[in-house]
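Revision sheet: structure tokens.
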Amino acid sequence: NCCRSAFRADDVVCMLNDHTLGLFLLDLPRESSRVVLNRLRWLIRSHRIDFGHKADFSVTVSIAFDMLTSSSVLEACEKSVQALDQDDRNSLIELGA
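Predicted:
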């Protein structure tokens, strides 16, 4: 639901595996992508859900992104998120900047 409210109708959101979403922001410059993805991070963090007998539970998300210039972009993004320390959650990682 957070993705639906943050992206345009032409953007693509897909599930890559159990813990990974793929986002394709079409015809968007790097600077605008950074703003949109930071907004998504904030929306997810501020969204409250009922979970585990807690009425005010929230989750965090780390996002790695780059311009789609080769087939290895996804792999580089996955590796950068996996390399995050537990204390570095809820990060925005900009590759290739």
